[in-house]
Amino acid sequence: MGRNGGSDRILYFDAFNGVSGDMILGGLLDLGLPLEHLRRRLGSLRLEPYRLSARKIDRNGLSGTDFRVELEKGGHSHGRTPGQIYGVIEESRLEDPVKEMALSVFRRLARAEAAVHGESVEHVHFHEVGAVDAIVDIVGACIGFHYLGANRFFSSPLNLGSGTVTFSHGTWPVPAPATAHLVRGFPVVMGDVQAELTTPTGAAIVTSLAAPGTATPAWTLDRWGFGAGDRDLPGIPNMLRLVLGREAAGGRPSPEAAEGVRDEEVLVLEADIDDLDPEAIGYVMETALGQGALDVRCVPQQMKKGRPGHHLSVLCRPRDRDRMMGLIFRETTTLGIRGKTWRGWVLEREFREVETGYGTVRVKVGHFRGEPVTVWPEYEDLKRIAEKTRLPLKNLRLMAIRKASGTK
Fold it and tell me: Is the preceding omega at residue 175 within 30 degrees of 0, hence cis?
């Protein structure tokens, strides 16, 4: 987790000159994402050897960060299938929210590639977007969003550019076929610049996270950063601006909020389903979490006429209602959704990394009135160490809690 606890944070993609994966990462580094943190978290991905670099650069009077991914000397990057990429992400030590976000982006990319080439998602082969640099860009961006605490995303219209672009399938007019599919229904502009300004990787990240045509709420701007592209363009800086802020409060904070408890309104969406296969239900749950759901549950139940079925429940913020309803209607067979509004109280929280003597464990710490009241280690970290050392998982958990709490 980043340095911003559990507070809601808005990240705005100001794509006045397009967007790409490396521009997003450059902007995140410019916003304060430490390069070493990025290296450390990406290090848990099983990929060919590569190097990360970042440097300050000026373009047309604007200062930003130029981010690069380069294969080690003599290395070769190859394409992958969606399943191979999902495996790389799922087997990593990344935080669950980062995994869910990255998987959501790659699933959207897979559907776009499948639609463009007339193939099933299972048989799609990623070329450019399956290479090391694209995987690093997408997963690295999700690491940065998580570190900075960004959980609401908005975007300006995406500048696509014009002219032609050459890639593994030949030379095509801008936008490339996959990009064109990804930005369907999303506000775009096509200017006079003869270049591909929005790449499939950049389009997948933005359109997976930011709702199309959604106006930003009233919000306060904290800071911004610029991510540099890899070319000099006449008359306009090849930059992406990322703006980080918070939704403006509608009044004075409640006493609970002042003590570190966030008071919020949440929405519960429910649907009863009796004719959908289990794999599809799992996909809906993963996708909902990747698109901003606070929690998702699915429990078996007996339906009318004795048929077995499932009760799906999605907890989300009211502003995400339409997105979650659309997902449930598109991906399940239900004909109706019930909804109810609840009041929620959420502890401010942070993630810490503690050294147990057998390996590093991430620990979630919840604070109430300035005092840590909940300390809980990440299961995947404990499991990894337990399998390696043969120590009981319960003992490792206790050890990590004591380390995080400062007790013996």
Answer: yes
